[in-house]
Design a protein that fits this description.
Helix content: 55-70%
Radius of gyration: 20 Å
Strand content: under 5%
Strand order of the largest sheet: 1-2
Structural class: mainly alpha
Shape: globular
């Protein structure tokens, strides 16, 4: 079946992921030095936070809840690092990967060769997006893992005090950290869908990356304008900070559910937009 046949039949044809294709895509993403350097920068932030809190004067207070709670349980370093990297660093990493997904292939002239084999545009976009989502998970887990290791090494573990004032076991706290990573990764993956769509609009991966970053910053700015409170629930970034509800007892699920639903809508809409754009894109030259 040719790529033209796949496009004509719609996005349901050849819609399964090729393991070899996905593995190849992941090797490219995690094999590039610039991507590894980016992951290294992400990992440095929790180290800085842990050391800064350790050497600072005790009892100064006045900081965010996660920062203030670090001395009580080292796992809070992971939560504090995720909060610190939430606005810029993690979205920047995902923007770089998603912006390069299709535009990078077009820029190198390899996109048309990919579609001469039985891959098809639908399977190409599914595999590209799966790789973006996996990268989002890995980047988020990396920040949390480094934060947890540094925090436990410098401050210890044990029971954790939730924002509701109750105590939970160390195992329960680790589980909630993993749930927080999953929730944030879903949000970043939705941002990756926006990047995938923008990547189909240009052959310049740097331009696509910058555009995704600008979209992310714009949503944060709009979310900070109180006069636009009617718009806030529709912004992807509005729900990201809701991962803090996972540290309440019982877990407050309303914002979590709305955040996941919003991320799912963004992911579906922009993946379909990317498919529609690539279906009509001339890649023969």
């Amino acid at each position: 079946m040719s790529a033209v046949d796949v496009v004509a039949a719609g996005p349901t044809v050849s819609a399964r992921i090729s393991p070899r294709f996905l593995l190849s895509e992941l090797k490219i993403i995690f094999g590039r030095r610039r991507n590894l350097a980016g992951l290294g920068v992400l990992a440095v932030v929790p180290v800085i936070i842990a050391i800064a809190v350790r050497v600072s004067s005790p009892g100064r207070g006045g900081g965010p809840d996660f920062i203030s709670a670090i001395a009580g349980n080292g796992l809070f370093v992971a939560f504090a690092a995720l909060t610190a990297e939430l606005p810029i660093f993690l979205p920047l990493a995902v923007s770089a990967i998603s912006g390069d997904a299709v535009a990078g292939e077009a820029n190198l002239g390899t996109l048309r060769y990919l579609l001469t084999i039985p891959v098809g545009r639908t399977r190409l976009l599914i595999t590209k997006y799966a790789a973006i989502a996996i990268f989002a998970c890995v980047a988020t887990l990396l920040v949390a893992l480094v934060g947890a290791i540094m925090g436990l090494a410098l401050f210890g573990g044990g029971t954790m005090t939730t924002f509701s004032g109750t105590q939970i076991s160390f195992g329960n706290a680790v589980l909630r950290l993993l749930l927080s990573c999953g929730y944030l990764a879903a949000g970043f993956a939705a941002l990756g869908a926006i990047g995938l769509f923008i990547s189909t609009l240009t052959e310049q991966p740097i331009g696509a990356t910058i555009a995704v970053i600008l979209v992310n910053v714009m949503m944060f700015i709009l979310d900070s304008i109180t006069q636009l409170d009617w718009l806030h629930p529709w912004l992807l970034t509005h729900w990201w900070i809701a991962f803090g509800d996972l540290l309440r007892e019982p877990i407050a699920t309303d914002n979590i559910q709305r955040g996941l639903a919003t991320a799912a809508v963004y992911a579906i809409v922009f993946w379909l937009a990317a498919w529609a754009r690539l279906s009509n894109k001339d890649i023969s030259s």
